[in-house]
């Protein structure tokens, strides 16, 4: 009897025991684990399989990795993981905690409610865009505090990061039907693109490790490994079985979740998450790597789809796995193709609705939104002396903030992403360099020109100050100063301007402009 057959007998025997006490107990199978849900607990046993990228064929190693899984999931799972339980007896009569030789080990976890996984929540009721803000905050904080890879470690080296990417293609090829020439040709295109892009990015990959962006992370970040428990998103099932899958660039981890959202038909959610993460982390240079990693992550999921039927299955299961593979492979190929870019700025007084308009455009068009309020605070963490023309609002600080926006926008555009700069841009001197950059880079340029009655501007500022929590620190004093010194759009700028009113639903106005803004 094979080790996998013995595993299945053991799991069936355990399930039979649990069914006596809980008739609703059930078994969930993945390609590497068997999970029994019984009562208020979940029991996870690792399968004795060897897929190259993981090897669970040795029982002692399975037990070791059970402990590793608990260790690695403490940061994001909020106490979901409890302990490792040893199983003794025989495969047909197993027992937890009894005397005798240990025959297997299991991870014991709290069981969360059925339907609480975020992929299930999405299927049943959908996910609110605002939940992406919660996820972005959680990820950015986790990434900021995760251990950095040692400088002398091979982990995080370009060759180490590239190895599983190349290995994916070698492992997928024999899983494809030999007669499926279309899939084989697509796989080869993706392999060649990945190889060429890796050659272009090697220096940046090495620099990212040196700068501390390679850390011990989760490694398998997608909605199926997240759940809403007690009103909070928890993240579980971090990768324990392969160090190189876990010691990765933060952008690789983010790429997995963004890819998963896009695969599930949630591009606006992906854009919302990406932008909020970047606002918190400031890691705009990492965008150069994002599509490279998204391609890799899509192919990881494509491979997993095929591995699910690698040891057989019904005709329906095999057909479903191949369809899922094709979906992920097509998504991977979409990342490998150059996307059109554009540059947009907002123009208007504080509280005129610029940030809302910029957010909607970023989510709808896949743009990177860069906010002056946030970058100003990043440049000047301490506000300093209060006042319109002092501290972080001095003329020098303001000039540096707009220069920072220009530099970030240039880097983002050169990385192949469209940009919207969320700032007042009330001065010709701040707008002209942006227009010149757009012309120099040959990208379409637009100005979102916000119009808002003065009385409404003042009401909004007072309400914002009372509510708190907004990155903007504009006051009535700031508004007065803006209005007294604003410079209208020039004749050269007016053809680029797209007017929006703050006293009319901005969503409808933007929808009417999409034909002009959506790049061909």
Give a quick precis of the structure.
The chain has 520 residues and is α/β, with parallel strands linked by helices. The chain has helices at 3-21, 59-72, 74-77, 118-124, 130-145, 158-172, 181-210, 243-246, 250-263, 267-281, 287-307, 315-335, 354-365, 372-379, 395-414, 428-441, 454-467, 476-485, 506-517, and strands at residues 26-29, 33-38, 41-46, 81-89, 94-96, 102-110, 214-216, 226-229, 232-235, 247-249, 343-347, 368-371, 419-422, 445-451, 497-501. It has a six-stranded antiparallel sheet with strand order 1-2-3-6-4-5, with helices on both faces.
List descriptors.
520 residues; alpha/beta; Phosphorylase Kinase, domain 1; Aminoglycoside 3'-phosphotransferase, Chain: A, domain 2; Rossmann fold; six-stranded antiparallel sheet; five-stranded parallel sheet; 52% helix
Helix count equals 19
Shape: elongated
Average pLDDT across residues? 93
Q: How can the largest sheet be summarized?
A: 6 strands, antiparallel
């Amino acid at each position: 009897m094979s080790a996998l057959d013995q595993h299945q007998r053991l799991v069936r025997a355990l399930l039979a025991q649990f069914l006596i006490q809980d008739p609703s107990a059930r078994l969930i199978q993945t390609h590497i684990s068997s999970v029994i849900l019984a009562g208020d607990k979940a029991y996870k046993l690792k399968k004795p399989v060897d897929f190259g990228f993981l090897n669970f064929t040795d029982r002692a190693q399975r037990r070791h990795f059970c402990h590793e899984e608990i260790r690695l999931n403490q940061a994001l799972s909020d106490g979901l993981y409890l302990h490792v339980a040893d199983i003794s007896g025989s495969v047909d009569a197993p027992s937890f905690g009894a005397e005798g030789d240990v025959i297997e080990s299991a991870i014991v976890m709290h069981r969360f409610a059925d339907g609480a996984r975020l992929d299930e929540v999405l299927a049943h009721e959908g996910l609110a865009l605002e939940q992406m803000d919660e996820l972005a905050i959680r990820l950015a904080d986790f990434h900021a505090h995760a251990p950095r890879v040692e400088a002398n470690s091979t982990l995080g080296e370009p060759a180490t990061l590239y190895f599983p990417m190349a290995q994916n293609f070698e492992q997928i090829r024999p899983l494809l039907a030999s007669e499926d020439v279309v899939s084989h040709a697509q796989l080869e295109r993706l392999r060649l693109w990945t190889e060429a892009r890796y050659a272009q990015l090697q220096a940046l990959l090495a620099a990212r490790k040196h700068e501390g962006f390679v850390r011990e992370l989760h490694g398998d970040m997608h909605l199926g490994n997240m759940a809403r428990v007690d009103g909070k998103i928890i993240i579980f099932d971090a990768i324990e079985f392969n160090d190189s899958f876990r010691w990765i660039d933060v952008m690789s981890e983010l790429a997995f979740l963004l890819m998963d959202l896009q695969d599930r038909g949630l591009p606006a959610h992906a854009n919302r998450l990406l932008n909020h993460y970047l606002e918190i982390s400031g890691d705009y240079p990492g965008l150069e790597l994002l599509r490279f990693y998204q391609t890799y992550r899509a192919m990881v999921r494509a491979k997993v789809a095929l591995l699910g039927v690698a040891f057989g299955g019904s005709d329906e299961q095999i057909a479903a796995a191949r369809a899922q593979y094709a979906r992920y492979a097509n998504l991977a190929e979409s990342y490998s193709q150059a996307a059109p870019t554009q540059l947009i700025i907002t123009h208007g007084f504080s509280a005129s609705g610029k940030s809302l308009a910029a957010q909607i455009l970023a989510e709808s068009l896949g743009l990177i939104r860069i906010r002056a309020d946030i970058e100003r605070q990043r440049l000047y963490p301490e506000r300093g002396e209060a006042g319109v023309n002092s501290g972080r609002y001095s003329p020098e600080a303001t000039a540096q903030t707009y220069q920072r926006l220009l530099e970030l926008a240039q880097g983002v555009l050169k990385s192949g992403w469209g940009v919207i700069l969320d700032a007042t841009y009330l001065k010709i001197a701040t707008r002209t360099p942006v227009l010149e950059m757009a012309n120099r880079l040959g990208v379409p340029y637009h100005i979102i020109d916000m119009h808002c009655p003065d009385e409404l501007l003042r009401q909004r500022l007072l309400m914002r100050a009372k509510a708190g929590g907004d990155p903007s620190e504009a006051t009535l004093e700031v508004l007065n100063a803006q209005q007294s010194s604003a410079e209208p759009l020039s004749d050269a700028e007016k053809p680029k301007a797209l007017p929006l009113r703050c006293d009319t639903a901005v969503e409808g106005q933007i929808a009417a402009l999409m034909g002009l803004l959506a790049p061909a």
